[in-house]
Amino acid sequence: MNINWPARIPLGYFPTPLEPLGRLSRQLAGPQIYLKRDDQTGLATGGNKTRKLEFILADAVARGADRLITLGGPQSNHCRQTAAAAARMGMECSVVLRGNPPPQSLGNLLLDDLLGAEIRWAGSETREAVADSLVAGLRAVGQRPYLVPLGGSTPLGACGYVRAMQEALQQLAEQRIDIDTMVLASSSGGTQAGLVLGALLGGYRGRILGISIDSPQAQLSAMVHEIAFGAAELLGAPSADPAGRIDVNADYLGGGYAVVGDLERHAIRVAARSEGLLLDPVYTGRAFGALLDLIERKVIDRRERVLFWHTGGAAALSAFSAELSPR
Ligand SMILES: Cc1ncc(COP(=O)(O)O)c(C=O)c1O
Questions:
Q1: d(CA 92, CA 115)
Q2: Ligand 1 in contact with 311 (CB < 6 A)?
Q3: Annotated domain spans of the chain
Q4: CB of 246 within 8 A of CB of 228?
Q5: What CATH number is given for 49-152 in this structure?
Q6: What is the mean pLDDT of each run of 10 residues along the chain (327 residues)?
Q7: Which of 2, 87, 132, 247 has the fewest Cβ atoms surrounding its Cβ within 10 A?
């Protein structure tokens, strides 16, 4: 079908590699696990936000924006990538972060600063309220701020993951690999929404399992559905109905968002020591931990072929040293 792609500004290195996790798959005695290396998109240590920002930045430029404003947690990968994209485009950037400043600027927070972003702490206010009043204040003095919503998870941002699914399906076809289940970390929903829509448009019939990082199942499913539906309209494919393809597992919320527990610690060590592969403490550590548990409990069969979307985030590791490497 003919896809009506919105404008896009290249910010990353694509296609990202698709590779087997040979040693780990053998250690587990199956399933065969493959990795889609979206941690290698290249933009200021990479990650899944690069693909979304390619479309969002094109829109910001078309609207004559002079500053990007976005929001996230103190270790937001999205804020770091947005700061990098703004720098690349010669724009200013403000990031509104939850809570108050920690004693030390580590991980993504350090990178936000190095990349030139102005950092605003929301304190006891909501990040959305602080970001909205920042936008209003700048508009009032004649500036042209552009608000990038949480996680870049809009229908426009999700187009990046429709493209990503196309890219992966082409690599899988070239390498003659049939995937039964794709697994990813899902939080603000844009990545999963794009993959689901990309699967519908590209003819992938296997499972796409989003491991919820911080929301109950019904809430995240509804978010993914709304974004995928909006993206389908945007791309001129409104007949693609994502409803039946949205699969969310919310059994691994642990102690809450960005709380590192045994599941994440174990997964990060297993990936690092069996494959020299760095996962992150908040998203991919949790989602990969969930995958290992589902394999252990035989929910995912050892004869399956699994593709894990590595969505990045290792830049945050040093900020979690106390939790990851307790002395
Ligand atoms: C490393 C990483 N993986 C996965 C996600 C989840 O992506 P989404 O917010 O599109 O659901 C994020 C979001 O911040 C992330 O930083």
A1: 10
A2: yes
A3: 18-47+154-324, 49-152
A4: yes
A5: 3.40.50.1100
A6: 92 98 97 98 98 98 98 98 98 98 97 98 98 98 97 98 98 98 98 98 97 98 98 93 95 98 98 98 98 98 98 98 87
A7: 2
